[in-house]
Amino acid sequence: MTNFSRRQFLKQFGAFSAGFFTVRNVFPSFNLPETAAPFEFLVVGDSLIFGQGLQEEHKFYFLVKEWLEKEFFAGKRMVNLKTKAHSGATITLHDDEAEVLRKANKPENTFYNPELSTGFPSIWAQLDSARAEYQNPHAVNLVMLTGSIADIAVGNILNIFGSQKNFREQVPKYCFEKMFELLEHSAEIFPNALIAVVGYYPMVSKKSATQKVFNAILELYEFPRMTKPLLNNPLTKPILKIIRQKIINRSKFWAENSALELQKAVDRLNSKLGRRQAIFIKSPITEENCFGTKKSLLWGMAKKGRSEDEIYDQRSAACRRELADLTKNNEVDYSMRFCELAGIGHPNIEGSKTYAEAIKARLAPIFQNRTS
Fold first, then answer.
1. Residue spans of beta strands (DSSP E) within the chain
2. Are 187 and 278 in contact (CB under 8 A)?
């Protein structure tokens, strides 16, 4: 073991302290300019920030918009909300979905019903699409986004038969490397905006009921309802417990490490710019209230193969109508059942409120110069 002298300790502690206070000075508070102009608020990202399964008035970006306009600005400044987020959006377009668009002879910025899980338009393309619509991109005040989970895919995160090594490598690749590139792009085209990156939560935990977890899985993979008692019963419980624990371990790794890597991406951007332009907002949903828990803040399964979310019927109709267009003349198979049940595992009405409160708590002290 290397000896570490008192002098070395004091020297390194002093360097750390100096660096810490320098960073605090380099990244001063992000102040809003004194103006009566509308506050421009842009939302981009995947199903989490889009609010899968929620009516518009229950989505957490809408709750934040209402708070800004009615409470923070007290009605003295209007908030213009622009939303480009949709379910399934990846940070950049992946090759398989680029091929879908090529065969369908459609550009990447083709928007389908946002409840349908497609990688396109990518979050990068969402930013570019929004920029083209702003007369003055420099006037954008807040960009709120999520990104990376669709690149890895929830199915891969929870797949206990998938490569552990590959999974562990994908988290820093997308949550840090690709996210940093996305934040850099966002800061370049919206240089005066605060960029708020919203984090993800554990899907399942030790608090999750085994039966609820596996019933949802069986429904997603279209096992006939009559077979559920044969596959999910007291006799199979020991096996399911082993599988459940492996799922929990992967879910926990995702929640903890995605948060660490997203924070690193934010820190790297701020360090490069020499100012605080981005912040990370950790998910307020924990192992206590994730999927299948007694106090779950996420949508679960309802009766008769339906999901609990508010717009199951509307989404199911959109799936049948629009997936036909996507699967026509190409080889990519979009699962109708996954499309219909896409609300499962996303924040419910209370979960969305909880996210909104966490976001408001982070934004309030940063936007300290209120427009009078």
1. 39-44, 79-83, 140-145, 194-198, 278-281
2. yes
CATH number of residue 84's parent domain: 3.40.50.1110
- Tell me which residue range forms the domain holding 98: 36-366
Residue 296: exposure state from Cβ atoms within 10 A (0-12, 13-18, ≥19): buried
Closest C-alpha to 103, from 330, 356, 367, 359 = 330
3-state DSSP assignment of residue 354 = helix
273 by DSSP, 3-state: which? helix
In a domain? residue 331: yes
> Taking the complete model, does pTM exceed 0.85, yes or no?
yes
In sequence order, what are the beta bridge partners of 79? 39
CA 110 and chain centroid, separation: 21
Max alpha carbon distance in the chain (Å)? 72
Domain count, the chain: 1
Tens-digit pLDDT profile for residues 59-110: 999 999 999 999 999 999 999 999 999 999 999 999 988 887 887 788 888 8
Distances (CA, A) of 108 to 112, 114, 318, 345: 11, 14, 20, 27
CB 44 within 8 A of CB 90: no
Structure tokens at 120: 């396109």
At residue 82, the 3 state secondary structure works out as: strand
Q: Residue type for 151, please? A: D
CA–CA dist 72, 59 (Å, integer): 19
Q: Is the peptide bond before 121 cis (omega within 30 degrees of 0)?
A: yes
- Name every residue whose Cβ is closer than 8 Å to that of residue 12 and which is 6 or more positions away in sequence: none
The pLDDT tens digits for 294-316 are 999 999 999 888 999 999 999 99
**Cβ-count burial 314-335 (b if 16+ within 10 Å, e if not):** ebbebbeebbeebeeebeeebe
- 67 part of a folded domain: yes
Burial of 84 (0-12, 13-18, 19+ CB in 10 A): buried
17 within some domain: no
* Cα–Cα distance, 161 to 177 (Å, whole number): 26
Is 56 part of a structural domain of the chain?
yes
